[in-house]
Amino acid sequence: MAERLVPIILCGGSGSRLWPMSRKLLPKQFLPLVTEHTLLQDTVLRLRGLEGCGAPLAVLNHEHRFLAAEQLQAVDVAPRAMLLEPIGRNTAPAVAAAALLVAAEEPDAVLLVLPADHLVADVPAFHTAVCKAAAIAREGLLVTFGIAPTFPATGFGYIEAGEPIAPHDGAFRIRRFVEKPDAQRAQAFLAQGGYFWNGGMFAFTAGAFLAELERLRPEILAATKKAIANAARDLDFLRLDRDAFAACPSDSIDYAVMERTDRGAVVRGEMGWSDVGSWSALWDTGAQDASGNVARGDVSLHDAAGCYVRADARHVSVLGAQDLIIVETDDALLVAARHRAEEVKEIVERLDRQQRSEHVSHTRVYRPWGYYETVDAGERFQVKRLMVKAGHGLSLQSHRKRAEHWVVVSGTATVTRGDETLTLEENQSTFIPVGTKHRLQNQSNAPLFLIEVQSGSYLGEDDIERFDDRYGRT
Deepest in the core among 135, 239, 256, 453, taking most CB within 10 A? Predict the structure, then answer.
């Protein structure tokens, strides 16, 4: 039986307002910010038990492909496809590419478009809203989810409801979209009623969306069709053609289609939704103590009120503070007034202008073979701790400007060094001269840990020439 509901999971976005936890190489959708699962994992897990729901199709940045695949595998979710964007072009081209893939097999399937970085606390209410939206979508309408507002928010766009759609209770035609209002207008919307927060989730058939996109933004559809036609298979991923996709105009679903179509509908949702857009949003949705504090990690609070405190690497004690955000990682600390949480993205922009690295990656950087952590660094040297997963290995590679010393801490390493093949056990070491082809492999069934000492005139990660790689990165 053909799948009638296909989830499209949008895994893009940088989450810069959630720095220092969210970073370019590990943005918020891949972090466990609310539960023990990451936001991506929570997004796919809440689909379980949803009537008629098939395997999800994920659209993501190519830099995050192995991270996303591993996180889905960890919760036993096998995606229908994983579509790689070579460059970000906002949500309209991303959904267009996914719709084209689905339409080739099931043009009448309903696409359920979900960002990977949202919170939904009431899953049964979410399922109810999705089933209602899917039924309306099968009537040819393009449906968005309107979140019933609980306070006069100024950080969300709003949707004004029009005529009810019979016989669907809580469903309306869209009268208009409203940009993020000031506090006075937001309060007026709340008092008047008939306005919803724009939840950024959608339901429509693949055919209906593509038809409206062709009518309203044909240049987006044309470029996306070309990117799909010239797409290349890369292991378990489908990589969109870079030149065609780069030529595609960048636009959101809202601007490109939903605000211009005469077939728009909105379904009311009361599902405990949050876009997890800032630290203040996590304070709003978190479990607060009697003083209004939300604490995660090894935190001690003394005479504190209205604070969000998160300790990631060390103990954090807070004394006599009020309405603060305090977020600690092993290489950065954020202290901010809670009402200025939206401005954290300006800190990230400043770090970027200063060509710093704290907004790009954590000290632990994940790779498809495992991870590495920077332990120490100085002039002409760098020390890293590597973990190589069982059965995995690094590429066959060389470096033009650095040499490397490897010391096995635990496990067994199989090392290719030039024409030699070495087996190293705990406390054994080897040296890789500049320019020598080498490979590190873990052929055992246990993780391999080792210390890598790099020395040379340049120690950047881009000083790698790959000759052979099981992950397709040559």
Answer: 256
